[in-house]
Q: What sequence folds into this?
């Protein structure tokens, strides 16, 4: 599982989260390193709950509270006080894996051996309005 996700998670993280710009100084490199280590561990925790690479590749948050659709951090999903984000993610997971129920097909025999006669009552317009 971990080997499979290792190819894709940097691209998934850059699509879902606002990442820091290219680091030029030592301070910026240290901040970028802590950012990537924190977000990678948080993403792997989320991936254990929702283990599907196509799900993470297709998910967007454009219709949510964030205008540009990119989150500041995956830590939003682990907030104990506010469960909006984890519920949103669960709803997206259910919508992604939803399959409609299949209806059972009935095969009717067109060649009936004998016709059945049904009693038809003649009814006038007076019975229609009753």
A:
């Amino acid at each position: 599982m971990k080997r499979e996700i290792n190819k894709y998670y940097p691209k998934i993280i850059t699509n879902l989260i606002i990442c820091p710009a290219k680091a030029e100084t030592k301070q910026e490199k240290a901040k970028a390193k802590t950012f990537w280590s924190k977000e990678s561990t948080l993403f792997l925790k989320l991936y254990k709950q929702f283990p599907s690479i196509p799900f993470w590749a297709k998910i967007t948050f454009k219709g949510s509270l964030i205008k540009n659709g990119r989150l500041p951090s995956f830590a939003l999903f682990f907030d104990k006080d506010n469960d909006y984000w984890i519920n949103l993610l669960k709803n997206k997971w259910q919508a992604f894996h939803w399959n409609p129920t299949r209806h059972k097909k009935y095969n009717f025999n067109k060649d009936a051996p004998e016709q059945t006669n049904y009693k038809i009552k003649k009814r006038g317009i007076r019975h229609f309005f009753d």
Remarks:
- The CA atoms of residues 70 and 127 lie 66 Å apart.
